Amino acid sequence: MFALLGGGLLLAFIRLLKGQHGTDRAVALDTATLISTNLLVFIAFLEGRSMLIDVALVYSVLSFLGVLAIARYLDGGLR
Amino acid sequence: MTFLSIAGHVLLVSGGFILFTSGLGILRMPDVWNRLHAGTKATTLGSILFLAGIGCLEPTWIPKLFLIVLFIILTNPVSGHALARAVHMRPEEKPDNLLEDDLAESGFEGGEEQ
């Protein structure tokens, strides 16, 4: 399971590093944050610590806000 | 090995496979809008399956997992739409393989509010 999620994360990060344009990188960042949210929930399940679920919840909220801010910036400035 | 445990493992593996597929699509797809398909729809379905699998294996966490799933369902289309619109508003990065372009024909081109 770590291989599947970590492999997906690694492929998204390769696109994030070599993407042709800024929008490619933003799309790859969106995918990478969602996969790492799932990875965080899986680590919480393995370790049996329910506190990491809260971390995953806050992380998904903040990553959504970050991606939205990047998209609005690429759109031509924050209006 | 109860039914709930088997269902949880099956959901975990299928969700993890779909998440891996979305990462593969991000790397292998030819242009931005194809990558957006892989990056938003596949991660939504993969997250739903994966978190449902975790919920089957650990039933006391279901409320918080349901909150995360609800939030992903609500916000992932929004960020996907914002990213697609950002691609459209940048003519130098926009792929020229569109068959129809309703946003350009609607007179809302270039990011100017009308």
Beta-strand proportion of chain A: under 5%
> Distance between the terminal alpha carbons of chain B, to the nearest Å?
62 Å
Give the N-terminus to C-terminus distance of chain A in angstroms.
42 Å
Written as H for each helix and E for each strand, in order along the chain, the element string of chain A is HHH
Sheet/helix structural class of chain B: mainly alpha
Helix content of chain A: over 70%
The largest sheet of chain B is: none
The geometry of chain A reads as flat
Please state the oligomeric state of the protein chains shown.
heterodimer
Largest interface: A-B, 45 and 50 residues
Provide the number of structural domains of chain A.
Answer: 1
Shape of chain B: elongated
Percent in strands of chain B: under 5%
Task: Give the tally of β-strands of chain B.
Answer: 0
Radius of gyration of chain B: 18 Å
What is the makeup of the main sheet of chain A? none
Low-confidence stretches of chain A: none
Please describe the structure with a list of short key phrases separated by commas or semicolons.
heterodimer, A: 79 residues, mainly alpha, 85% helix, B: 114 residues
Provide structural commentary.
The complex is a heterodimer of chains A (79) and B (114). Chain A is mostly helical. Chain A has three helices and no strands. In chain B, helix 1 packs antiparallel against helix 2 and helix 2 packs antiparallel against helix 3. Chain B starts with a helix and ends in a 9-residue tail after the last helix. Chain B has one domain. Chains A and B meet through helix 1, helix 2 and helix 3 of A and helix 1, helix 2 and helix 3 of B.
Chain-wise SSE layout:
The complex is a heterodimer of chains A (79) and B (114).
Chain A: H1 2-18, H2 22-47, H3 51-74
Helix pairs in contact in A: 1-2, 2-3
Chain B: H1 3-28, H2 32-57, H3 62-88, H4 102-105
Helix pairs in contact in B: 1-2, 2-3
